[in-house]
Design goal:
Gsp_Synthetase/Amidase, two-stranded antiparallel sheet, 205 residues, single chain, mainly beta, 10% helix, ligase activity, Peptidase C51 domain-containing protein, CHAP_dom, endopeptidase fold (from Nostoc punctiforme)
């Protein structure tokens, strides 16, 4: 199967480009070319921001939050470690953070735009995974995900990477890994989801 080349644009919802990570070959001599830093002099933010390693899932998630909310979570070893973070940096100030709240799958609080969807470590995803919830439809019960480095085939369409079925039972919200419009026999059939993670802008520290 012909997959998109590394660096191919997969989509650009809400002004944030998602790039393909298929076919990446690590060259230690080029490590500084893979890492992305945004100096405050170029962004207008109050602090420098380390965006991440091209074009990993964590890099996309941090870049999305920085561009849309001017907040960036700290550097983490792997994607699943984001779930353990209690705060996220307020990039409009030299110092200061916001609470970074977890909503485990099955919470009574529905997901919303800008929440991060977090996957744990698994056999298929050895570093876990993180994506961004870019659309929530409570009536039709689905969420759209923006992400990088989830699978080689890339995005389903330019508007979103995957459209996932959401179940609502007894006032609880469950995001499944089943995709609308596709037979559920993909490699990720048994992948679990920690839940969604949200910035609490009402409490600045």
């Amino acid at each position: 199967m012909n997959y998109p080349a590394w660096g191919t644009v997969m989509g650009q919802p809400f002004g944030v480009i998602a790039y393909c990570n298929t076919g990446f070959t690590f060259d230690r001599n080029k490590i500084h070319e893979y890492q992305t830093y945004w100096p405050k002099e170029e962004t207008g933010l109050a602090r420098d921001v380390y965006i991440g390693f091209k074009y990993q899932c964590v890099e996309y998630a941090r870049r999305f939050l920085t561009l849309n909310f001017k907040a960036a979570f700290q550097d983490v070893p792997h994607a699943h470690h984001i779930w353990a973070l209690d705060t996220i940096e307020d990039c409009t100030k030299e110092e200061g953070t916001f609470p970074f709240i977890n909503f485990p799958n099955g919470s009574q609080e529905p997901p919303k735009f800008g929440d991060l969807i977090i996957y744990p470590y698994s056999k298929e995803q050895r570093f876990g995974h993180v994506g961004v919830i870019i659309n929530v439809n409570l009536e039709e019960k689905f969420v759209d995900i923006g992400e990088q480095n989830y699978e080689e085939a890339g995005w389903e369409c330019p508007e979103y990477a995957r459209r996932l079925i959401m179940k609502i039972e007894n006032g609880q919200y469950f995001i499944t890994n089943q995709r609308i419009g596709k037979p559920y026999d993909n490699w990720d059939i048994k992948e679990e989801i920690f839940g969604w993670k949200r910035i609490n802008f009402n409490q600045n520290k």
